[in-house]
């Protein structure tokens, strides 16, 4: 079930053995806290479940804090990046080029050149025009660049919440029926080498059978394209999409069953010349980082309006946008009343001047009081990084990592008087 990595039966919330109130006392509220032990546990659980032919590349976009990236890199993960900023993080952390793959639509010339100069394993290309830009920059730099094609497939996994999936027209990738022609058109260019495919067509999947069926479709597609083009296939990036439980009645993805299913598929499909040499890449983000994080927020007001009970906190959707963006509650508790009966239905909202500023609706909690601390769980992925912190000019929360009973400030709190200095009068 959700929250299996936290003890929610005790009266007060602890994160990695640290009491929530002490964390707020040190670093103020609102506050993002990550448990390094959970990060490492999730990686070990996934790595031990996956067969040897699969490489795990952490999807940095889910949480790009340098300390989070370092935790996974030191555990053995590669990194899937999608921007200049994420590439810069790779450079700062001295991540080996063979541990970096560059994905994402709309890559700029600056980003492409920077990636070529620091070195990446490959570019996952999203369009014909992107390949042309890569060829041009590679020629100018006199480099031969390895590339893969992101495929907008004719198959997909049905998502509970439509985030990235479906088979409709989209900005991601090259349509499956155009891939062969694109490869044939560019294959003779001396500055690029086609070595892989990238398919990411689902998010937040909890059923391993859906992921297995999707991978089987990927293998069939890859084999067909290799037969048609004769490229030397070195990797098949099967994407991510590994979900985590948000509702308390949801169960974790069975990664052991997934690993067994992927091993069986490898035995079935990858003994042929077309696929035998290809490594597989799995690029989880949320699965690795999501459950480690908690957003702590202080209750500033409690009120009732026309029969609806409200909790107002000092955190809003400018700090934690995902619940409003996806219309999905995260697990929510009162950190100092974990052992009290949840008998009131609340909307938990922030201080913004908009009714969109709702981070949880219809959640059952104990009676809330001013000064209580609300804990939003599963905030380690698409929490800090997906929000809009400058809206309404509040302080930007700090990020803290708890490891082995110690706390480390991994991004400091930024007050309005500091970021107002960025403005030019």
List the defining traits of the structure above:
20 strands, eight-stranded parallel β-barrel, alpha/beta, 12 helices, nine-stranded mixed sheet, single chain, globular, 425 residues
Outline the secondary-structure elements.
Layout: E1 14-15, E2 18-19, H1 20-27, E3 31-35, H2 36-49, E4 54-59, H3 66-75, E5 78-81, H4 84-92, E6 100-102, H5 109-118, E7 122-125, H6 128-141, E8 145-152, E9 174-175, H7 179-186, E10 192-198, H8 208-229, E11 235-237, H9 255-269, E12 279-282, H10 286-289, E13 293-305, E14 308-313, H11 322-326, E15 332-334, E16 344-349, E17 358-365, E18 373-377, E19 398-403, E20 406-411, H12 416-419
Parallel strand pairs: 3-19, 4-5, 4-12, 5-6, 6-7, 7-8, 8-9, 8-10, 10-11, 11-12, 14-16
Antiparallel strand pairs: 1-2, 3-13, 13-14, 13-18, 15-18, 16-17, 19-20
Helix pairs in contact: 2-3, 2-9, 5-6, 8-9
Backbone structural class: alpha/beta
Strands, total number: 20
How far apart, in Å, are the first and last alpha carbons? 52 Å
> In this structure, how is the largest beta sheet organized?
9 strands, mixed
Summed over residues and divided by their number, the pLDDT gives a mean of 94
